[in-house]
Predict the 3D structure of the following.
Amino acid sequence: MTTPRANVHGTAIVLGTHGFLITGPSGSGKSRLALACIAAARQAGEFAALVADDRVDLSLEHGRIVARCPPSISGLIEIRGCGIGNVETVPAAVIDWALLPVTAPFDPRLPPEAETLPLPLGRALPIVRVPVENGAMVLDILRALLAEKLRF
C-alpha cells in the first residue's frame, strides 16, 4: 500500500509542538507570516522552525498529515523584494492547522464557521485566519484564537 503524497504551494512551520501549513495565493504574505511566527515564538523562548517555503511535500502517515521540504529548497525562504534567505529547518512536521494570511479591509469581517483547507490527500485542515499587517502580534493572535489547543 502506497502512502498518499502531494506537493502543494504553501509554507510549513513548527511552533512549539504544533505544525502549520500557511496557505494563500502568491504574494499574500505566507513567507512573511512564517518568519514573524518563528521570530515571535523564539523570542518567547519557544521552539520554532521552518519546514518548507513555497513548495511543501505532504503525505498521509498513520492518519496524520506530515509536511516535508523538497530537497532543492531546504533551508531557504523567500523574503519578497529582498531575495532568498537561509533559516533553521526541521526535516518534517505533523501539520495540525492551516494559516491563511489576511489583510484589511477584512471581508468577510468574521471568517466562515468551521472553515477548512481541502488537501489533495483526501483530508482537510482547519483554517485559522491571521492578519499580516505591520505590527500584528502573530503569536498573541494565534494564542487567542487557539487558546485551548496551543500549549505555548
